[in-house]
Structures are given as C-alpha cells and as structure tokens.
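How a chain folds remains the central question behind the approach discussed here. The record that follows shows the chain in one-letter code together with its fold in token form:
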Amino acid sequence: MQDNEEVVKDHGAADRYNWVSDFVYGGIDGAVTTFAVVAGVEGASLSVPIILILGFANLFADGFSMAVGKYSSDKAQIEQFSKVRKIEYRHLTEKTEHEHGEVVEIMGGYGFKGKDLDRAVEIITSNPHAWVDLMMRNEFNMTLENVRPLKGAVATFASFLLIGFVPLVAYVFKGILGFDQNILFLVTCVFTLTSLFVVGAVKSRFTVRFWLWSGMETMFIGGVAATIAYFVGYFLRGLA
C-alpha cells in the first residue's frame, strides 16, 4: 500500500503545482477582509492606531486561518483520493469482470465502437495503473492535479499578507504622506480597489471570463464588502 506522499508523486502533482491560483485567491480574500476592517473602523470614526491594530490583527490571524484551511482541505483531498484508489486496486482482483465492464462503458462514452473499443479496453486493462487512473477520473471525478498542501498553504498565506497589506499602506506611512485621516481613507480606497481589479484580472486566467469583467467584478465585491463594513461601523460608532 502506498502512503499519501507516494500517491502525490505517482500522479505528478509535485511537478505540476501552480502557485498562481492559490496566490490570486489568497490575495483577493486578504484585500477584501482587511479593506472591510479598515472601512468599518473608519465608519466608527476611530483613530489611526485602532485601524492599524485591528488591520494587522486581521491580516495575520485571518491569513493564518486561511492558510491552515487550505492545507487541511488539500490534505483531506489527498487522503480521500488515496483511500478510494486503494479500494479500486483491490476491486481489480476482486471484481475484475465488473470493473472491466465499467471500462467498456467509459470508453464507449468517448465514442469507441467495435474493434476500436475492444482494442482500447484491452490496452487500458493491461495496465493496472492506467486502469485505476481511468476509474478515478471518470467514475469518481477525482484527480490530484495541482494539489500540494504545504506549498498551497504558503502561497495562500504569502498572498494574503502581501495583497492584504495594501489597505494599510497609507496608514502605515501617514507620517510621510502628511494627509489627514479622511484623505488617507480615500487613498486607501483607490489603492485597494485598484489592487483588487488587478488580481481579479489575473484570476481570469483560470476562468473563461474576459479579464476586464473579472477585474471589475472582483473590485465591485471588495467595494460592496467595504461599504457594508463602513455603515456597520457608522451605526455602531456610539459604542466605542
């Protein structure tokens, strides 16, 4: 029996890992949540030190939580894949005829007929690894493409910190910029919405959407989240 690490290596996930997708989604979450925190504090008319305290607390705590969630999710996916894969290998010897029939059905669905179907089934069933791989993909819709728990968690955490820091930049450098707090918030809105647009545009690489609409959508979502947080802070400002 192979352990989880061997399963990952067998399927080439170690070589195929692409950090960009995790970086993009981690960055979007980091920018939106930190922007919402800043907007909420601004709505409550609290001071810059409070913005920085709550902003950085959210940045590191939520970033760590998201990274742990990513790691746990990917690890659970690998463990589930490993479990099902072992069962399928056992079925090749215990339920050979049934498994053979499933291959015939799958290949028939791809358009193979007659002698071509017989030959395709013969080739696949002659290689246990190819046989199981076909069943994993077609019967269970399970693959390990781009699944690396540790690398995914690191990419997610790094992007959360990097992009999530954008809403705090103007406040960190308040002394250098010399703006009052209202101007700082306007600068923060421009910086954050621009970064969300850029990250959203990059996200379109993993979808079929046009980059402009993807960027606008991501920017809009971030803006709505910040607006909600701002008004919640505004209506609760008397509690501070």
Summary: The CA atoms of residues 170 and 184 lie 6 Å apart. The chain is about 80% helix and 0% strand. Residues 48-94 form the longest helix (47 residues).
